[in-house]
Amino acid sequence: MAGNGVFAEIYDGEVEVYKYYADGHWHKSSSAKSVSIINPTTRKTQFKVQACTQEEVNKVMEAAKVAQKAWARTPLWKRAELLHKAAAILKEHKAPIAECLVKEIAKPAKDAVTEVVRSGDLVSYTAEEGVRILGEGKLLVSDSFPGNERSKYCLSSKIPLGVVLAIPPFNYPVNLAVSKIAPALIAGNALVLKPPTQGAVAALHMIHCFHLAGFPKGLINCVTGKGSEIGDFLTMHPGVNCISFTGGDTGIAISKKAGMIPLQMELGGKDACIVLEDADLDLVAANIVKGGFSYSGQRCTAVKVVLIMDSVADEVVEKVKSKMGKLTVGPPEDDCDITPVVTESSANFIEGLVMDAKEKGATFCQEYRREGNLIWPLLLDHVRPDMRIAWEEPFGPVLPIIRIQSVEEGIHHCNASNFGLQGCVFTRDINKAIMISDAMETGTVQINSAPARGPDHFPFQGLKDSGIGSQGITNSINMMVKVKSTVINLPAPSYTMG
């Protein structure tokens, strides 16, 4: 795949390393160093990307700043036109980009294609939404405030922030990149993308689609490299006017260092599923399996703990076990349901949580099985609050069940978590559903469905350690602009009109 067709120029065939993108061109880093990307399935090096230097980051920031000034003066319809073009190119080249996702992050092949298509749709929707939102201004008149005559008109409009730094996570390196890139661009900002190591090559392919669409040079940039070398340097760079980050604990450190700029942070969750006695138990079981084990549980919105009324727990556990037995386990190329987790350290962390639960007496509904980075799906019943798995986010195909005696107990456990991204409640009683939803300290509550981020225009936000600000296309556009006011002061009338 590398080095052929439309993506030929992003690859340095001599040393088999992908280039980075800056000022409208593909470059080799002056460091002459590269970062290896390990295929989670084979556990061998699959790709290499440039290890950019701090000096190269400085140049990127300078170019972005210059390009942004001109882009801010580009008509809104023209910005939208280019985004529509990029979306079409992205969808046209879904196959090679999906192939990268399969090899870099072990995403099942069909899900990888879906991610790219969804990303194209997101870019198009953002173009349309941006034209609507940013095409509107506001007029205020002074005499609506006590003591004032009608002597001032205030015109307010939305203007870009400047340079947006976008840092997506490994699990959706294309979709969660474009969810930051498209709002930034339609709003008139320049963009610097720092992709995750696992997922960097898919991100570079995606950026090339924007390059092919014909955006101005310097407006869009993508730097790869080691976090230790350019991570803090990027997030603390004086040229950055906004950071949009999706990922884990690193986001908290970024927030503390970033300075006085707008931040959009989504930092993981321990999404609770509360099941009442009157719930549709087949629906519950289907959603527990889908919510807990899709993409091997490596999703911020995966079901991470099931809080179930004891009276229906046995029945639900049996139904879940039966459905889990049908999940296929193996390589992503075969479109298996459960594929290897992203790194060996992730697999080791998950195993640590499992062993802790075993020592403390959790009931294993399946035998724990692991081969390399591949962990077979595991349901842990009779989990208690003294087990790490009750609180920590495994980011893998391991799901704890905590049996509860009352709804209050379930809500208490949910709210005792330091996370508050999403949660869900299963019941046939809409009044109970709304009351529980109100009581759950999470950014979103799904009623009778597993948590999910999409559709991408819905607001998406976390409370507590799950993040700052709100995502979703409209919210992201509004976060990446400032309000600018122009006040027209009318002269005092020299005569009485009329």
Automatic annotation (TrEMBL):
What are the transmembrane regions?
none
Name the GO cellular-component terms. cytoplasm
InterPro entries annotated for this entry? Ald_DH/histidinol_DH (IPR016161), Ald_DH_C (IPR016163), Ald_DH_CS_CYS (IPR016160), Ald_DH_CS_GLU (IPR029510), Ald_DH_N (IPR016162), Aldehyde_DH_dom (IPR015590), ALDH-related_metabolic_enz (IPR051020)
Q: Which residues form the Aldehyde dehydrogenase domain?
A: 26-485
UniProt organism field = Rhynchospora breviuscula
Which reaction equations make up its catalytic activity?
D-glyceraldehyde 3-phosphate + NADP(+) + H2O = (2R)-3-phosphoglycerate + NADPH + 2 H(+)
Record carries keyword Cell membrane: no
This enzyme's EC code(s): 1.2.1.9
Q: Which EC class is this protein assigned?
A: oxidoreductase
Q: Which UniProt keywords apply?
A: Cytoplasm, NADP, Oxidoreductase
Protein name (Swiss-Prot/TrEMBL): NADP-dependent glyceraldehyde-3-phosphate dehydrogenase
This chain's function reads: Important as a means of generating NADPH for biosynthetic reactions.
Q: What is its main location?
A: cytoplasm
What subcellular locations does the record give?
Cytoplasm
Q: Where is the active site?
A: 266
User: What family does the Swiss-Prot or TrEMBL record give for this protein?
Assistant: Belongs to the aldehyde dehydrogenase family.
In terms of domain of life, where is this protein from? Eukaryota
Does the keyword Membrane feature in the UniProt annotation?
A: no
Q: Output the Gene Ontology terms for molecular function.
A: glyceraldehyde-3-phosphate dehydrogenase (NADP+) (non-phosphorylating) activity; lactaldehyde dehydrogenase (NAD+) activity
Coiled coil regions, renumbered to chain = none
